[in-house]
Amino acid sequence: MARKGRELEELVAALEKGLGSTDIKVTSPDQIEDKTTKEKREVDVSLKGKIGSNEILIIIECRDRKSKQDVTWIEQIATKRDDIGAHKAIAVSSSGFSEAAKNKAIAKNIELRTMEEIDPKEIIEWFQAKEVTIYNQRFRFLRADILPHKCLDNSQIEELHKFLKSFSGAFPCDTKFIIDPEADAALSLSDCILRNADKIFEGFKPPTDEKTVIHLAIVPQNKEAGFFASTPNGLIRMEHIEIKLEIWLEVTKTNITSVSSYDIEGHFFSSDCFFRWLRY
């Protein structure tokens, strides 16, 4: 049996040689930041390239052991892939994999290879995305409460309550009645939610369609400047807005016919996922 680590050296050498004329960068070992802890995580081999203007990261983890690799290692690779935001993960074993590990790899979308099966031509195919996964970030208003600022007198508080009662039916989610001095224009509750998208979906790991109820406090960007409700009788200062939401993700896939970069407020695009906000 080859000395420990020799197969990894051979793998990296083969990748460097086979991909030398491409834009795919091979690094071994590599240190990549964990998206949650912000600490560096080591990967055996990283492959970095682009689809259009979007950066793609593929990681390869290798083991040179006498026995077949088990479920635990596959789970560790899947966790590392998700934690560092890699688009793809490949497990390379010199001794093969147990049946349980193979089943877990299918479930976790981890590709299994031996040293002989790694072909630079195949790697180039990995960087040619054929489909895109769309995660529709859906939300539904359950309740919204506006708290008047402590500086208001009784007449102003009464005017604010009167203004809120003037809305018939459901709460005015799309009515632009919120004035924030830090914003360029009047805002609606929907606008405020889009501005807090990262906070609202923090911790969500797609794909999942499970509905979750959350509570969110909408506060002014500048607390000293405050923010206000625009009423027929003028601006009335608010302390904050408490919102109760039901949120979930809807997942669809579509074939890629062309690739471009897409990045506007409230939307995010990458090579393998596209997040879009929709209100239910």
SSE diagram, text form:
Elements: H1 6-18, E1 25-27, E2 30-33, E3 40-43, E4 45-51, E5 54-63, H2 71-84, E6 88-93, H3 99-108, E7 111-113, H4 120-126, E8 131-148, H5 154-165, E9 178-179, H6 189-195, H7 197-200, E10 212-218, E11 227-231, E12 234-255, E13 267-269, E14 273-279
Parallel strand pairs: 5-6, 6-7, 8-14
Antiparallel strand pairs: 1-4, 2-3, 4-5, 8-12, 9-11, 10-12, 11-12, 13-14
Describe this structure in words.
By secondary structure, this protein is α+β, with helices and mostly antiparallel strands. The protein folds into two domains: 6-128, Trna Endonuclease, Chain: A, domain 1 (3-Layer(aba) Sandwich), CATH 3.40.1350.10; 134-279, no CATH class. The chain is 24% helix and 36% strand. The protein has helices spanning 6-18, 71-84, 99-108, 120-126, 154-165, 189-195, 197-200; strands spanning 25-27, 30-33, 40-43, 45-51, 54-63, 88-93, 111-113, 131-148, 178-179, 212-218, 227-231, 234-255, 267-269, 273-279. Strands 8, 9, 10, 11, 12, 13 and 14 form a seven-stranded mixed β-sheet that branches. The protein has a five-stranded mixed β-sheet with strand order 1-4-5-6-7, sandwiched between helices. Strand 11 (227-231) and strand 12 form a beta hairpin. Helix 2 (71-84) packs parallel to helix 3. The termini are far apart. Pfam families: Mrr_cat. It comes from Methanosarcina siciliae C2J. GO terms for molecular function: DNA binding; endonuclease activity. One of its GO terms (biological process) is DNA restriction-modification system. This is Restriction endonuclease type IV Mrr domain-containing protein.
